[in-house]
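Can you give me the bound-state structure? Components:
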Amino acid sequence: MQQMHHPCTAERRPMLELRDVSFRYKGRHSDTLRHVGLSLESGEMLLLAGRSGCGKSTLIKVISGLVSGEGQERREGTVLWNGEDMADWPPEKIGLLAGTVYQTPDDQLFAMTVEDEAGFALENQGEAPEAVHDQVEEILGLTGLAGLEKRGIHQLSGGQRQRMALASVLIGKPRLLILDEPVSQMDPRGVQDFMELLLRLNREEGIAILMIEHRVNELACYFHRLAIMREGRIVYDGPLQAAWAFLTGRENLGLREPQCVKLGRVLGLPELSSDVAQTVLQIKTYCRPVPAVEAERSGGAGKHQSSSRPGGKTGETGRNGRPLVEAEKVCFRYPGTTEDVLKEVSFSLNAGEIIALMGCNGAGKSTLLNLLGGLTGPSAGRLLFEGGPLARQRGSTGYLLQEPDLMLLAGTVWEELKWKNDTLTDAEAEALLQRLHLEPCRDDFPLALSKGQRLRTVLGSFFAWRPKLLLLDEPTTGQDEASLQEIAALLSHYRDHGGTVLLCTHDVELASCLADHVLLLNQGRVLAYGTVFDVLSRRDLLAAGGLVAPPVLAVSGALGIPPCITVEEVCHCVGPATLGRN
Amino acid sequence: MSVRQLWEGTDAKPWIRNLNGRTKLVFLFLYAVLMITIDNPRTLYILFLFTLLLHGLAGTSLSKWRVLILLILLGLWGSMLSQALFFARTPRTPLLVLIAPGTPFLGTLTGGLSVYREGILYGAVQGLRTVSMLSLGMLVCWTSDPRQLLNGLLAWHLSPQIAFMLVTAIRFLPVLASETEEILIALRLRDQKAKGPFTGIRHLPYVAKPLLARCLRRSQTLALSVVSRGSFSEKAARRRQQWDGRERWLCLLFLLATLAVVFSKISFLLSEQGLYAGPLRGFYDFSSLYL
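Here's the bound-state model for the whole set.
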């Protein structure tokens, strides 16, 4: 393990310390945790990353005292809290010191109303109702849920439910907050709000934070320390900015690196950094603009037309240019409501393209997908598929819902691909299995596979029908980098063979690399529809659509080169680093 | 109102929401005993109406009333229709002959098919038992916080694991309802050949697998969350012992009333078998008229 973190000295004892902890689940042949050593000071913030299945969630359970190592489970090593062994502590005692917030708040909330949920832990401590009430008020105010005391937990929005989960553990005044992928289902604005709340708790209340998350690219700016797990071991623990050098040549660790780090790596910068200013400084120091761009820049920066994407895809038209789907002034209103969710939405999707459907939560993206998927009809306007009514095109569209697990119905992966589909021959199914990289799981129960494998199985079941249009509702949520790359490759292959994808996503970096066009919605209206470059290189549109600009856009702006939204585009404008040039 | 909101109880009146979990469970249990004991259709009908009255007093919303009425009608009609057609005891009075025994083939095959008056009554009694419990069970589900029921079961020293499992089913009712809806949508999307009005029914056998798999994951997380918030701690156990005095008295009265009904019914049945005791005549009359 690369241990760069401050050593624990005798004078300053860490708040939480794991010493050589190993853990094996009942019935397993190998350890899920292997000799894990980790320490956390009071008030410290640590980001823990690693591929799915590397043991992160088990580590949380060990810290929380929720796996005992009794019976056929095996636990070795010690977990210390302020130097005291926690082995004999009951989970509720640990729970008050180290509160855990899980990935899906729905799964951890137990009570009926907001105030009951928030006060649950204190009630269990035998606190008087008046004291519970006062503390609930305080904690709901702190987490931005004041005024919602009587509301049912199922009536809260996704972001509010995540705050509710946070409030329910904060009430016990924990010294450590453990968060298991808490932002994986949030849009960029939600992530920002939630992280600001955590920073405030850390700063003002001195609460230490241990967060597990794949999306290191988005969270790097909030943390100073990163630990990386692989196959049950901590392989890196140290300053976040020093991790990028460690990760060079270790792409299989499942982290989504920040764009600036990827750029620095491609350009061969001596120091990799997730910070835009630092990256710009290094590029200016060590790299030289390519001559064509320099000439253009000398003619005046900013003269570029928006469509002049440096070295990127132009994406002006689809591969064959014919419209597959046309929407004409489509409106939709849910029964019993007074306002349209979609307001005169018009666009056309060309065949052979990937179109990213973007916008903040509540913009109308899922409603639009439901309309295109034939689950409901528009209140007004027309939807055409290959020039005819959309309703007649049943069988030409595959629609992957936001929760792919709910679409897995068969007993094995093989049966899943062939489920109610007699048009798929065995040879074609074999080829599809190979393309999905699921041959080893052919006879496995789909719901027992890893998250990425489960998603690929559902995608495969749609590919098996050879649809002309594929609708995907945030398919990359909670996926690690490797899984993300596999899904991107599958979609590119599908597009290259004439398929059309409408991909609903908040992930600007993914859209910029994968999509040809972006359809940006805001409050039920089309805010922008154009090539991926035309939309994602405009900060005003991104801000209005609740999206975060890709970091390389800021890099290109600071360098005075044409706007860039991908690493490759910057590399077209800037030559690789020449060490010691200046 | 979303499917999820339909199965949660924040819209119920505070008086019933705030009742102790044990009070609700005691009522549910004693009501079940009464339903088994009583055979008189009128009394069963009155008890059924009483459950509806409780729904009214609890402020059950219009959407929930719709669901409740649908389930009640299905339960009652299903029971009455099946018993009307297949009532086997005698005497039985045919009200309508659907297939006469002498009808070629079908008559020989079935031995005749009629709607029997006694079958309708018997089905109504069985149906009233079912729907009364259904109605009261729904009332408890729609007005109870899972914490109340968990605390109630734990206070009676039920194993924490079993108590948690029982209560989790109620906690997940809203989630299950919305996920079932989502799975049916997913099935529509997966089955490209599905057409016709009965598609949803054809898809029902496929709902269980993804639903159960999700439930397993969810309940594991919920269990971890509840344990780490001290739900099974000693302090929580001490707090659980608190039970409002008035509610205790109410439960005690109901218990005594139920015991009286059970005693009355048993003594009446024994008297019919020849075990007659003169001082119990009042009980016999009461049972004969009302039970």
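A couple of observations. Chain B has 15 helices and two strands. Chain B touches chain A through 50 residues (CB under 8 Å).
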